[in-house]
TrEMBL record:
Keywords: Hydrolase, Lipid degradation, Lipid metabolism. This is PNPLA domain-containing protein. It holds the Pfam family Patatin. It comes from Hydrocarboniphaga effusa AP103. GO terms for molecular function: hydrolase activity. SUPFAM superfamilies: FabD/lysophospholipase-like. Residues 18-177 form the PNPLA domain. InterPro entries: Acyl_Trfase/lysoPLipase, NTE, PNPLA_dom. The active site is at S51, D164. One of its GO terms (biological process) is lipid catabolic process. A motif (GXSXG) lies at residues 49-53. Signal peptide: none annotated. PROSITE patterns: PNPLA. A motif (DGA/G) lies at residues 164-166.
Length: 326
């Protein structure tokens, strides 16, 4: 941080923002990053999230991160598989069972009533525009951002069908700034994933259990077809996941070049498959490691702000559900 900017931070009492990126199961690293920041006395006031970043950010903004962290660390591959409601309508997984189960366990406050500002990023399927959701119940706002093309079915939010926010803004730095953040800490989950293995082999336990049954349903047979993979022939799921990784990596580079954050944290989780949600302990540990490793640099930017932080009026006028061109 330059001396000139440090003086400016001291004068303004800068607001700290988190830009939590998309990345499916790798997103559990966001939990570790947030816990690590809290541990060193840095409490972000603005949370912007895309896809799984929108989900973790929503839980944090609603004050439920501790319980959520404990729960995800108990998940097994069988648990994850049981929460996936497979379909061929708009994607492989509806997501209703997963998010329905989640909503039963967590509160769903209105974003306007939170102590922190929160915004999720989604993609309008009809227009392709970037949509920021910063008002209304927080869980539907997060869900609207989580619809990976070909994997999770689109989500209807209001009168519009929403796709994954990672299609237009995988690491939402610009929404964090628009919501009032002076210093943005970005967590980029996609930086090292092009060419990485993304097979759903880790879900083998659930698949093998289903495949041994003689009364397999159509959906079980279809699931085996989509998820089966070998060294010689990638599965349909592998192809879709690799395509998403490549696309999000390229978009992230472009967006962050035009609007760079003050700090970028990159969890090293290249061996994580798209649906490795049962590996939360590893991802959270990596988030902790990142903060510890970069603590000096983080404090150089945010330490001053943490000491002289200014109150943030969460009820002030902020961007409503709006559309922006990608």
């Amino acid at each position: 941080m330059s001396e000139q900017h440090e003086v400016l931070v001291k004068q303004k009492g800068a607001v700290i923002g988190l830009a939590l990126g998309s990345g499916s199961a790798r997103g559990w690293a966001h939990i570790g990053v947030i816990e690590g920041l809290e541990k060193i006395g840095i409490h972000p006031q603005v949370i912007a999230g895309t896809s799984v970043g929108a989900l973790v950010g929503a839980v944090y903004a609603a004050g439920q991160l501790g319980e959520f962290s404990e729960w995800v660390q108990t998940l097994t591959s069988r648990d994850v598989f049981s929460l996936l409601d497979f379909t061929l309508s708009g994607g492989m997984v509806k997501g209703q069972r997963l998010f329905g189960f989640f909503e039963e366990k967590h509160k769903n406050p209105n974003i306007e009533d939170l102590d922190r500002r929160y915004v999720s990023v989604a993609t309008d399927m009809k227009t392709g525009r970037e949509v920021w959701i910063s008002k209304g119940p927080i869980l539907p706002a997060a869900r609207a951002s989580c619809a990976i093309p070909g994997v999770f079915s689109p989500v209807k939010y209001g009168d519009r069908w929403m796709l994954d926010g990672g299609l237009v803004n995988p690491v939402p730095v610009s929404p964090a700034r628009a919501m009032g953040a002076d210093i943005v800490i970005a967590v980029n989950l996609n930086a090292q994933l092009v060419g990485a293995h993304v097979s759903i082999a880790s879900q083998k336990e659930g698949l093998e259990e289903a495949s041994t049954r003689s009364d397999k349903t159509f959906w079980q047979r279809a699931t085996e077809y989509f998820l089966s993979s070998s060294d010689e022939h990638p599965s349909v799921f592998d192809v879709m996941a690799s395509s998403v990784n490549i696309m999000q990596d390229r978009i992230t580079r472009s967006r962050m070049a035009g609007d760079p954050p003050e700090l970028t944290l990159v969890p090293m989780l290249e061996d994580f498959a798209l649906m490795d949600f049962h590996r939360a302990k590893e991802a959270i540990k990596e988030g902790h490691r990142l903060v510890e490793e970069n603590a000096a640099q983080i404090r150089a930017w945010a330490g001053v702000a943490a000491a002289e932080i200014k109150p943030l009026d969460t009820r002030a006028e902020s961007p409503l559900v709006g559309a922006r061109k990608a």
